Amino acid sequence: MSLLVVGLSHRSAPVSVLERAALSADAQVKLVQDTVAAEPATEAAVLATCNRIELYADVDKFHAGVAELSTLLAQHSGVGLEELTPYLYVHYEDRAVHHLFSVACGLDSMVVGEGQILGQIKDSLARAQELHTAGKLLNDLFQQALRVGKRAHSETGIDRAGQSLVTFGLEQLAAGGAVEEWAAGRRALVIGAGSMSSLAAATLARAGVGEIVVANRTFERAERLAHILTEGDDTAVSARAVRMDAVPGELTRADVVVSCTGATGLVLTADSVAQAVEGRIDGDAVGPAAAATTVRPTPAAAATGTAAAEENCPLDLAAVQGSTGFSVHGEAAVAGLDAATLEQHGAWVAGGTVDRRDTARRSPEADAELITALAATAATVGRIPELRRPEPVAVIPRPAPALFLLDLAMPRDIDAAVHRLAGVRLVDIESLAEASADAPMAADVDQVRRIVSDEVAAFGAAQRAAHITPTVVALRTMAADVVAGEIARLDGRLPDLDERQRGEIRQAVHRVVDKLLHAPTVRVKQLAAEPGGAGYADALRTLFDLDPETVAAVSRAGDSTDKKDRPA
User: Fold this and answer.
1) What 3 state SS string does 153-191 have?
2) pTM beyond 0.70
3) pLDDT over 90 at 426, yes or no
4) How far apart are CA 433 and CA 374, in angstroms?
5) Model confidence over 120-152: pLDDT tens digits?
6) Which of 80, 280, 505, 565 shows a CA-CA span of 20 to 30 A to 418?
7) Which segment of 113-122, 231-240, 306-315, 413-422 scores lowest on mean pLDDT?
8) pLDDT (tens digit, 9 = 90+) per residue, 180-235?
9) 475-525 residue pLDDT tens
10) How big is the CA angle at 413 (ends 410 and 416), to the nearest 5 degrees?
11) Distance (Å, whole) CA 208 – CA 211
12) Cis peptide preceding 390, ω within 30 of 0
């Protein structure tokens, strides 16, 4: 049997394909069960994260295994095999081991060096163990991958090369600023209570947010996470749980939203986010962003200078008043306006609501005709060019984002159309992939790669050595049976020997057999541990005419012992 992995990740497939191929928890269970039920595979485990879907299996035939695993992935993901195939990658035997070890160390993550993948590998192994689809090979493989990942993080500075997807996402929301400064005092809404959402909530708490609201479809899980955040030694923060139907209301009060659920459809639509932003701006906004997002130009309480009244005027009179020569009648005042606004301004001027003391050169009717002509021009060519507009008295900056959204779900929880909404900053898996492409690699990455190479070689040697062990045990068992038979014959032929003499003879025969077998069995284990050494077990069985069933029985006994010794 040999290890085979078939999968797709952010490195091989666009986010749109990964999103469609995402597997629910139930789909993952069915996938591994169907895999072991298929003919080429005897063991199976699935590793599904927000940016990868991989199926691991112990197969007896490479080509049949690839075909079967690819077909099963397509069936359970819902993406057609023809469409999915160009994005699939295949790793076999040592290359498959190298791939999983690299994944465990964070070398294959979207954010190089992130450590959350270790928890996901552990969950994958636990699921396979619960379903009894992980045998000796996958148990050994995944447990060793966890050890290699921990070694990489403890012996190198790979953590400096990257961080969890959550931290990287928050850094993108902070737009290059310190996350602690950006997050301080904000209100956060976390949608979901799984591992990723819990990590996001804890990270936000440590960053100094003022309040965290947790929403989840299972209210008890939301309550549990809120309690942990409130009572934690390093995450003490004001936290409370709400049900999912309370999300729209909480959205209008939140500054930061992190969503990572297992939903198959959108959790937040563009319309719901737009309504939340409108509610924040029009209502009582909260948090540090409030000042930036609620500022609006306000007309003067009483017009002065060139305007006697402002009622029904479509212009912002505060911007046009107080500047010498900047009359509300001229082209400079209406430059940049669209046709509809110009027409409204023309009607206002014609109504005679303007103080003519400093602009008596034309009548209101003439101004109205001029503005109507300008409106006709604007309707044809767009806005009136701002050729004669002087420098404004005060520049009103573009409002800062009122709402920050981080979508870590796959498939996505938040409508991608939210990117186009004013007052909102959305970071999702797709934008994280683009940002991480330019992320610098730490020097420690090379050291981690060396660790992975060494561990792959050691794992392969151990597996090959373990492969020949049942044959060696069967050989020694056969030798012991031969010795026992000969001693029994000797007892029958020499009945006058005393017990001391029989003991000496028995020990002498055992020593001879042990010495004859020692060098060959030690050497064959060494040779079998080298690449291409699998054939030595077959040679040993042939040379000594060992019963294949005896060897298989030793293997089954070893597997049974491993399972009893395996941690729960």
Assistant:
1) HHHCCHHHHCCCHHHHHHHHHCCCCCHHHHHCCCEEEEE
2) no
3) yes
4) 48
5) 999 999 999 999 999 999 999 999 999 999 999
6) 80
7) 306-315
8) 999 999 999 999 988 788 889 999 999 999 999 999 999 999 999 999 898 876 77
9) 888 888 888 888 888 888 888 888 888 888 888 988 888 888 888 778 777
10) 100
11) 9
12) no
Taking the CA of residue 4 as centre, how many other CA atoms within 13 Å lie in the half-sphere pointing to its CB?
A: 26
The 3-state DSSP class for residue 557 equals helix
Tokens of 294: 């609620």
User: What gap in Å lies between CA 350 and CA 366, rounded to an integer?
Assistant: 8
13 contacts: CB under 8 Å, gap ≥ 6: 21, 87
- Rg from Cα positions in the chain: 37
> Could you confirm whether 50 is annotated as catalytic?
yes
Q: What mean pLDDT is predicted for residues 37-62? A: 91
Q: Is the pLDDT of residue 245 over 90?
A: yes
Whole-angstrom distance, CA of residue 163 vs CA of residue 153:
11
* Paired tokens of 345: 């301004």
The one-letter amino acid code at 450 reads R
Tokens of 358: 């400093």
Six-digit token pair at 267? 């959790």
- The catalytic position among 50, 105, 260, 313 is 50
DSSP alpha helices (H): ranges in 185-330?
195-207, 219-231, 247-251, 270-282, 290-294, 317-320
